[in-house]
Amino acid sequence: MFTKILIANRGEIACRVAATARRMGIRTVAVYSEADAGSKHVAVCDEAVAIGPAAAKESYLRGEKIIEVALATGAQAIHPGYGFLSENAEFAEACARAGLVFIGPPGSSMRAMGSKSAAKQLMEGANVPLVPGYHGENQDPEFLRQQADRIGYPVLLKASAGGGGKGMRVVERSEDFVAALGSCKREAISSFGDDKVLVEKYLTRPRHIEIQVFADTLGNCVYLHERDCSVQRRHQKVLEEAPAPGMTLDRRAAMGEAAVNAARAVGYVGAGTVEFIANQDGSFYFMEMNTRLQVEHPVTEMITGTDLVEWQLRVAAGQPLPKKQSELAIHGHAIEARIYAENPEKGFLPSIGTLRHMDTPAAVNFELGGVAGATGTEPAAVRIDSGVREGDAISPFYDPMIAKLIVWGVDRTQALARLSQALAEFQIVGLATNIAFLKRLVEGEAFSTADLDTGLIERNGATLFPPSKAASPGALALAAVALIEAEKRQSAGASANAADPWGQAQGWRLNGDYRRVLSFGDEYAATLPGGAYQVGVVYHPQGWELEIDGLKQPLTVSGHDGATLSVRLGEQSMHGAVRRDGDLFHVFTNGEHHTLAYNDPMAHAGEAEAAGGRLTAPMPGKVVAVMVEGGQTVKKGEALVIMEAMKMEHTIAAPSDGLVEEVLYAVGDQVADGAPLLAFKAA
Ligand code: MV4
Prior knowledge:
Elements: E1 4-7, H1 11-23, E2 27-33, H2 40-44, E3 47-52, H3 63-73, E4 77-79, H4 89-97, E5 101-102, H5 107-114, H6 116-125, E6 133-134, H7 141-151, E7 155-159, E8 168-171, H8 177-192, E9 197-201, E10 207-215, E11 221-228, E12 232-233, E13 236-237, E14 239-242, H9 249-265, E15 270-278, E16 284-290, H10 297-304, H11 308-316, E17 333-340, E18 342-343, E19 349-350, E20 353-354, E21 357-359, E22 382-386, E23 393-394, E24 401-409, H12 412-425, E25 427-429, H13 435-443, H14 445-448, H15 456-459, H16 461-464, H17 473-492, E26 514-521, E27 533-540, E28 543-548, E29 551-561, E30 564-569, E31 572-581, E32 584-589, E33 592-598, H18 607-612, E34 614-616, E35 621-626, E36 632-634, E37 639-645, E38 648-653, E39 658-663, E40 670-671, E41 676-682
Helix pairs in contact: 4-5, 7-8, 12-13
The structure holds ligand MV4.
C-alpha cells in the first residue's frame, strides 16, 4: 500500500480523499492555487505545495507541475478526484511514464468512452442495451432522415462529441428533420470541432439511473447498485439517491450486469459509473460511462457500507476488490443534496461572498473516519462532505459548492424526513444559497412521492420558485427581540447581567410606557404601501408588547443562548435563530430562512434634515455631549452631538461638510423624538 499520495484536486473531494487516506495511515500531499492558500483541503493534508495562480488552467490543470510535485514530495500515487484531470488520458499516461500510479482507469478506457458514438458501438458488441437509433458513419442528410423515419418520431439528434446536453435537438416530424440536422451539425462543429451526429428515439419522460461499477487489476468487476440522479437542472445534478425508487430486483441485476459488461468491454480498472436513461416502465438504455469517481458516490457508500476511496487506493495498489458481488447488499436509503453558493431567485447565479456563519446539522463528519456503515454499524444519519469552513470565502474561480449533505434512513420515508430536517438546520449567513430551494424540492409533491424524471424541476417551477411571501409575525418578533437584545447588550456593556437584557434591573425600566417602532424590509415588504414592516415595541411596567399589522400582543422572551431565541407572542410560542450581518437579520425559524433588512433610523440620522438645514433627535433621549458651537465649519462624519437613548449613546454626525449655524440644546437637556438639535447648512 502507498505511504504517501498526492491529491490533485481541491474543495470537498480533496478533503474527502484526505479523510480516507488518513484513516488508512497514508500521508497526503495537497496542491493548491494562490486563491486556495488558506483553504480547508490545504489544512487537512500533511503537506501542501503551491502550483500556480487561481485560474484552473494555470494550477489544477497543470499536469506536468503536479507530477513534478508528486516526485519532489515522494508521493507514490496521484488521486485526481473528479473534474480537472480526472478523465484526462494524457495525464494518466504521463503519471505512468513518471513512475507514478494514477488512481483511476487506464487512459485507453477513458479514450474508449470519450466519444459517444464510439462508446455506443462498443456497447452494442458488449450486449449493453442502446436506445433504438443510428450512430454510424453515414452522415448523408437524406439517409439520416430515413433512419429517423424508421425509428419513429419524436427522435433526438445528438452531437457525437457532445456531452451534458449540449448539441441536442428534438425533432417531432419528418419534414423538420433536415433543418434540425443542419442546426445540430453547425452547433457541433463550433462547440466540439466535430459535426458527427447520431439519431435516437427520444424518451419523453426519462429517468437518469446510473450504476456504480468497480474493477480491480486481477479481473474482478462488480456493481455497487444504482443511483437515481433524475433531479437535475440544466444538466447539473441537484439531488441523488440510492437505491432508485421503484427498482425491481430483476431490473437491478440486469442493469448491474450490463454495467459490468460495459466496464469489461473497455478494460476498465477502478471506480466507474455507467449512466443509463430509462423509461417510466423501467426499460433502460446506455447513455455514457464516466471514468472517474462521481460527486454523488456517498449515497452508494451509505447503502452498501463501503468506502469507495479506500477501494480506489487498494485497487490502485494492486490489491483485489475488498468485496465480492454477493457481499454487496443494500441497506436502507440515502439521499444527497448539493448545497451551493448560488441564488435560485436570480437564475441560480453564483453568489460570491464569505461564510460569515455556517451552522450545520449534527452530523457524523466524514473527517472523523466514520464512513457510514463501513464498520458494519448503522450508517450515519447525516453526513456532510465539505471543502469550506465558517469564515471561508467562496472563491469565484471554481465551482461554488459549499457542501454535500447526505442523509441515510432505514427507508426512503425516513431519509426524506431526515433530509428535510437537516436542510432546516443548515444555516448559512453571508451569501445566498440554494438551501431553501432544496427544501422546497425535497418536501414537494413530486420528489416526496418519487414521481421522478429529468424534467421534474422545470415542470414544478411554480412551487419551487414561489413569489416572495410576507415575513411571518414570528420572524418579525424574533428579529425585533434580537435587535433589542443586541442594543441592550451594547448599552449594558459588560455589566453583571448583560446576558439577560430582558431581566436587567436598570434596563428598559423607564418610568411609564416606552414605545418604539422598528422598521424592517425585504422583497415582499417593498411591495407594501410603506415599503417596510413596522414592528411596534411597547414597554409597560407589566411587560412588553409587540404591535404587528395593528395587532398588539404581549411578548415574553423565554430563552436565549447565543443566537437561538425562544419567545412567546400572544398565544404563540416560537423558537429560532437570528444571525445579524450588518443591518441584515437572518431569521431561521420553522425550517425557513427569512432575511430582514433593519432600517436603522440612526444610520442616516439627519441626512434628510441636513439637506433642509436641521438635524433632529431620532428618538427621545438626553443630550450628553455637544462637540461644536454655532458658526463652526465641520467635515462630513464629524461628531456634533451625543445623545443617550435607551441607555445607549448615539452620535449625531455631520452628514456632509458644512456650517453649524446654531446649537439648540445643551448637555443634560432632555429632547423629544424629532426635536431639532442644531441648525446646519450643508456646504
Ligand atoms: C436523451 C434524452 C431523451 N431521449 N436521449 C442529456 C445529456 C446526456 N446525458 C443525455 N441526455 C439525454 N438524452 C434520448 N434518446 C434526454 C436526455 C436528457 C437528460 C438525460 C439525463 C439526465 C438529465 C437530462 C436532462 C435533459 C435531457
